[in-house]
Amino acid sequence: MNSLTILGLLPLVGSAALFLLPKGSDLLAKQVALGASIVVAIAGLGMAFSFDRSATGFQFVEKHQWIPAFGINYALGVDGISLLLILLALVLTPIVILACWHEAAGGRWSVKNFFGLILILETMIVGVFAATDIFFLILVSLCLNLSPTRFLKLFRNDLKGVLPKLPSIVPCHLILLRKLLI
After folding, report:
1. d(CA 40, CA 88)
2. What is the domain range of residue 61?
3. d(CA 160, CA 45)
4. 167: pLDDT confidence band, cut at 50, 70 and 90?
5. Taking a C-beta distance cutoff of 8 angstroms, is the pair 145, 124 a contact?
6. Which of 8, 34, 86, 134 sits a CA distance of 20 to 30 A from 118?
7. Distance (Å, rounded) from C-alpha 26 to C-alpha 102?
8. Distances (CA, A) of 173 to 15, 24, 51, 106, 146
9. How far is CA 100 from CA 53, 97, 118, 130, 167, in A?
10. Structural domains in the chain (count)
11. pLDDT for 116-136, tens place per residue?
């Protein structure tokens, strides 16, 4: 497994750990989310230190056939710009968690759901900036990135009813799919 895949899976492991915590353990959920995000940031910095600045092209490349009939691949790699954007997201995530430390309470869902969605969003951000296959980039990373973002927006929304707002996620996915197929 490549370092980019591991870097993308680490926040998901932290998110899964959050969702497995018992109800009412808000402080522990915050600490687990902060710890997971710090571990991911350190792993990202380690990857950055092993980045060869003199080489051209993508580094940490990983490519596997996903759906061979359509030529769709699971392809990841970073160049200098995408590495900087990934590092920016990885370093800002612990800062965001600390900034939201007291803001998550009193929302529509529990504290562990709020911080779990932040960690899932971190995974999707790594996927967006590391994807080298257009199908993986648009339909997987960007579309899945919209879902936790939408739920985080709904988390603090004071309007009643979650279900009437959820269908607005679907048109975004359909628009991206239509642009890819045309």
Report:
1. 12
2. 3-181
3. 42
4. very low
5. yes
6. 134
7. 10
8. 24, 35, 34, 30, 9
9. 35, 5, 10, 27, 27
10. 1
11. 888 988 988 888 888 888 776
- Burial of 22: CB neighbours in 10 Å, binned 0-12, 13-18, 19+: exposed
Residue 108 identity (one-letter amino acid): R
> How far is it, in rounded angstroms, from Cα 109 to Cα 27?
15
